[in-house]
Amino acid sequence: MSKVLFAISDTGGGHRSAAEAMIAALSKVDPNAQCTITDLLRAADVPMIRNAPEIYDYWSTRRMWVYDLFWRLTNEPYRIDVLSAIVFPRARKNIKRILRELSPDMVVVAHPLAVCLMCKARREMMANWPVVTVVTDLATIHASWAYDECDAYFVPTFEAYNALLKYGISESKIIYSGFPVHPKFLEGKIAKQEARLQLKIDPSRFTVLLTSGGAGGGKVQETLETLEAYFPAIQVLAVTGNNKNLFTSLNEREGANEWTRVYGFVDNMELLMSASDLVISKAGPGTIMEVMSMQRELIVTGALGVQETGNIDYVVNNRLGYYCPDAASLRKAVHEISERSALADIPQSKTEVKIEGSAQIAAALLEHIAENGSKSA
Q1: Which of 18, 58, 177, 295 is deepest in the core (most CB within 10 A)?
Q2: What is the dihedral of CA 19, 20, 22, 26, to 10 degrees?
Q3: Alpha-carbon span 39 to 150, nearest angstrom
Q4: Residue 195 and residue 328 in one domain
């Protein structure tokens, strides 16, 4: 039985979603695999660091400039070394305790700030289990992802591949796997009409899914009000994530469109995408790849933080969708997409971007575990 520890932090929903996607894919290959997800920054129990999820939620919805400043100030390998030299001595006891309790055969890191911490813990413990990193950013790659003691890197794009090379990671360690999309977005897809029936929404109306990640940041309310004002006949499914203030605000508006449905945090995004003709979102990497796997039209309205800025170019350059930073461009794109939808002329395949990374990563992880077991025997 293989034991795999996934080290993440809940700073946004994408890191946990990536881990869950890999676990689902692993279970298909090895049903007996024992997988555990740990929020390493919270578990480290270092002041400030342990509150990273709450700090991220606050910054991403109210003080994004602070997050961007921190991102830029730390985006150098030597600065990451300094930061880790400050944090690790305070975190080592709790990190080692977790590792001793779980005794993993492998650690998979899916958060940049956990890479160095996990490699340092392994070195001090003189352990021999592999540390593998799965990069969950598409194009703008922070220096904290790159730590040469890591045994292997799985990257979703060639942009990420080249970024790691620039940071000094050996080419032999980098594997272009594609993004770890959850198998539920790739297998057993529900027909659009059936999904709408399950959601109890109008089965024949042009439907837009409006979302903005787990933190519910970005331009959700502004975008929703633009859609309702200029396209009163369309049906909007607005997802606010963990942003309770946004959820309340959208539900308490006067004069809201009768075809608008507001949801909080959801765990059936594949069903909502199945029911939709178009997805409008910030440029979150997980959402972009999930939309591609569901073969839906995509509009990105902006980036939440510096780390998502490159995703806009990635979407546009690969012709994955539209970039609409203002109401005028949004109206134009929605009109064009809705007209094309009426003609049943939505393209079924737009790109050669790899979206089935979970299966490749899962097979490679088990191979790494087997190889390490052979060496240790």
Answers
A1: 18
A2: 130
A3: 19
A4: yes
193 and 74 within one domain: no
Tens-place pLDDT, residues 179-201: 999 999 988 788 999 999 999 99
Q: Count of CB atoms within 10 A of residue 260's CB? A: 20
Specify whether 19 is located in the same domain as 165: yes
The position carrying tokens 């999930």 is 290
- Number of folded domains that form the chain: 2
Q: Is residue 63, in this structure, part of any structural domain at all?
A: yes
**CA 280/CA 298 separation, integer angstroms:** 6
Decide the pairing of beta strands 152-155 and 207-211. unpaired
Stretch (H or E) spanning 142: none
Output the pLDDT for position 200: 95
Residues 351, 332: Cα–Cα separation, whole Å: 23
Range(s) of the domain holding residue 269? 184-342
Contact by Cβ (8 Å): 24, 184: yes
Distance in angstroms (rounded) separating the CA atoms of residues 373 and 218: 46
User: Residue 283 belongs to a domain with what CATH number?
Assistant: 3.40.50.2000
Output the CA torsion 255→257→263→267 (10° steps).
Answer: -170
- Report yes or no: 110 and 134 within 8 Å, Cβ to Cβ: yes
Report the predicted TM-score, pTM, of the whole model to 2 decimal places.
0.89
Q: Do residues 207 and 213 make contact, with C-beta atoms less than 8 angstroms apart?
A: no
Which pLDDT score, from 0 to 100, does residue 345 have?
45
pLDDT(368) > 50:
yes
Judge whether 351 lies within some domain.
Answer: no
Q: What is the DSSP string of 13-63?
A: SHHHHHHHHHHHHHHHH-TT-EEEEEEHHHHHT-TTGGGHHHHHHHHHHH-
Distance CA 305, CA 64 (A): 6
Length of the chain: 377
The phi and psi torsions of 100 (rounded to 5 degrees) equal -70, -40
